[in-house]
Amino acid sequence: MYDVIIIGAGTAGLSAAIYAVRAGKSALVLEAKAYGGQIINTPEVENYPGIKNISGFEFATGLFEQAKDAGAVIKTQGVLEVKKEADIFTVTTKRNVYESKALIIATGATNRPLGLEREKEMIGKGISYCATCDGAFFKGKDVAVIGGGNTALEDAGFLSNYCRKVYIVHRRDAFRGEPATLERLKAKENVELVLDSVSVELTGEDRVSGLEVKNVKTGELRKLDVDGIFVAIGQIPSNALFKDFVALDAAGYVVAGENCRTDVKGVFAAGDCRTKKIRQLTTAASDGAIAALEACEYIDTL
C-alpha cells in the first residue's frame, strides 16, 4: 500500500513524486518504458527557469535521481488495469498488484504519424520521429522536417548541424513555434522553408529516397529528394487505459483543470496527458507539483 501511485515517469510524474515524498507521503512511480518522457530526446533545453542550458537527457536524469534520492519508489512496469473500490485504488501490472489512496495520471503523449502509405514500413529506413536519436545517421545528406511547432523547429535546428540540406514542410504560412528559434533557422543557408504544403507520398523502395508535397493553395506538386523525413506534427495522449475510468475529452486528453483534479475523487492528471493550452517542460513540472499537493490534501481528508 502506497499513499500515491504515479503512472508515468516523465517530468510531470517525477516532479509529482518529489513533491509527494517531501510532503511526507509514500510514492510509487510506474513507467512502462524509460524514465524522462519526451524531453530525454531534446538536445538542448534553454527555456527552463534557473537553468541556462542543459540537455534533455541530463535534465531527466537529474529529475529521476532527485525523486529516487528523496524516497520515491520507481519501477519499470507497464500498467494493465486501474480500479477503485471504496477509497482504495488497485493498479495491476504484469508483475504485481499495487494499492494506493490516491492516483496521479502522468502518462504523457506519443508522436502523431503523417498517415502516409508505407510510413510505418519505412520507420528506421528514413522515417523518424526523433531527430536527436537518428540525426547523426543523416550527416551530409538532405532531410525534411514536417511540422510547424517548437519541436519541428528545434529538430530542424539540430539537423542543420549535421545535414547538407534541411527542408521544413509546414501546412500553413506561419509557424506556431517560438519566433526566436524560427529567425535562427532563417539565417541558416542550408535550411529552406516549404510553406502551405502537405506531405502526400513517400518514394523509395527499401529506403526513403524522397517526399512529394502538395501546395494547398496552388495545388502544385513538388518532390523533395531527401534521405530522411523527421515527423513532428503533434501528439496523441497516452490515455487509452483510462477511457472508462476518468473523463476524457474528444481528443483523448484527461479532463482536468489547473488544480489537476479529475472527475474521480482521488485521481489527478499532470503534464501532457491532461486538457491544457500550453504543454511545456515548465508546465509539466508545475502540474506534477500541483497534482502531488492536491493528492496529499485529499489523502489527509480520508
Provide a descriptive summary of the structure in words.
- With about 300 residues, the chain is an alpha/beta fold.
- The chain has two domains: about 1-110 and about 235-300, FAD/NAD(P)-binding domain; about 115-230, 3-Layer(bba) Sandwich (FAD/NAD(P)-binding domain).
- Helix content is about 25%, strand content about 25%.
- The protein has six helices and 17 strands.
- It has helices at about 10-20, 55-70, 130-135, 150-160, 180-185, 280-300, and strands at about 1-5, 25-30, 75, 80-85, 90-95, 95-105, 110, 125-130, 140-145, 165-170, 190-195, 195-205, 210-215, 220-225, 230, 235, 265-270.
- The strands form four sheets. Strands 1, 2, 3, 4, 5, 6 and 17 form a seven-stranded mixed sheet that branches. A five-stranded parallel sheet has the order 8-15-9-10-11, with helices on one face. A three-stranded antiparallel sheet has the order 12-13-14, with no helix packed on it.
- Strand 9 (about 140-145), helix 4 and strand 10 (about 165-170) form a beta-alpha-beta unit.
- Helix 1 (about 10-20) packs parallel to helix 2, helix 1 packs parallel to helix 6 and helix 4 packs parallel to helix 5 (about 180-185).
- About 45% of the residues are buried.
- The model has no long low-confidence stretch (mean pLDDT about 95).
